[in-house]
Design goal:
Layout: H1 3-30, H2 33-42, H3 46-64, H4 69-89, H5 95-111, H6 113-120
Helix pairs in contact: 1-3, 1-5, 3-4, 4-5, 5-6
Length: 126
């Protein structure tokens, strides 16, 4: 994969993940009858969900900017780990959070190839 293709693919993944985080974060902050019904079923209050929405938006901000992208990737990965745990606790499908987690990792190694080199321990050409 050439550098231009890698750069474009990285930004497409970042754009998709960031859009998803921003949209769901705004929905959590704004609330609504449907969200409140789901939240109560999981044992959360709307105040807690609004806080989670704010955290989600902060993670998206760190994730989208190249200077803070590595830190943002770690924040989003941790956030999605919490989403996976919550889904498991309530017997919900973990497919979507796991997919997003994989896309976050993929975007991180595409944007920052040194991460993959450190994880694998060799020189890897992506």
């Amino acid at each position: 994969m050439g550098p231009k293709t890698r750069h474009l693919l990285g930004w497409i993944l970042v754009g998709l993940i960031t859009a998803l985080l921003v949209i769901t974060g705004i929905f959590k902050i704004r609330g609504g009858a449907e969200i409140e019904k789901n939240v109560v079923a999981m044992g959360f209050t709307m105040d807690v969900v609004k806080g989670i929405g704010i955290i989600e938006l902060i993670c998206a901000l760190f994730f989208i900017f190249p200077r803070t992208g590595v830190f943002g990737s770690m924040l989003v990965a941790a956030y999605m780990g919490g989403a996976i745990a919550t889904h498991l606790q309530h017997n919900l499908s973990v497919g979507l959070p796991v997919l997003i987690e994989c896309l976050v990792f993929l975007s991180a190694v595409i944007r920052y190839p040194e991460l993959l080199r450190r994880l694998v321990g060799t020189t890897v050409v992506v």
